């Protein structure tokens, strides 16, 4: 998973990320339910922009990041001290500084 797809702003989609460890019983249960929910949303084609009345619904994507040597830095950057964790990366909440602001 590329951090660009999660941190980029503005962007026309939302990402829900599960941080988990396969060596943790609770984490494994949450992972199973997370995959079930992600499959349900995929079946409903939420990864596509949908028009509802006069409004458009932003696409929704799911991602899972397993705790291991390669992902430790991301867990540390987010100050996670345990698993599981779920992060919703909504582009409305992503703050960025306009390069023209001085």
**Quaternary state of the chains:** single chain
Give unreliable regions as ranges. Answer: 93-102
- CATH architecture, please? 3-Layer(aba) Sandwich
Instruction: Tell me the total number of β-strands.
Output: 5
Average of per-residue pLDDT values: 79
Question: What helical percentage do the residues reach?
Answer: 25-40%
Number of helices: 3
Strand content: 15-25%
Q: Note the run of SSEs as H and E.
A: HEHEEEHE
CA-based shape: flat
Radius of gyration: 16 Å
Any idea of the CATH class? Alpha Beta
Spatial order of the strands in the main sheet?
A: 4-1-5
Distance between the termini: 33 Å
Structural class: alpha+beta
Stated plainly, the CATH topology is called Glutaredoxin
The domain count comes to: 1
User: Sheet bearing the most strands, described?
Assistant: 3 strands, mixed
- Give the CATH H-level superfamily: Glutaredoxin
């Amino acid at each position: 998973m590329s951090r660009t797809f999660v941190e980029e702003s503005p962007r026309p989609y939302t990402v829900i990320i599960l941080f988990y460890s396969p060596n943790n019983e609770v984490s494994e249960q949450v992972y199973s339910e997370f995959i079930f929910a992600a499959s349900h949303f995929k079946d409903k084609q939420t990864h596509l922009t949908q028009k509802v009345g006069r409004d458009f619904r932003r696409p929704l994507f799911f991602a899972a990041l397993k705790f291991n040597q390669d992902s430790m830095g991301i867990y540390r950057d987010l100050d996670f001290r345990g698993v599981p964790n779920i992060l919703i990366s909504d582009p409305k909440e992503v703050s960025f500084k306009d390069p023209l602001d001085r």
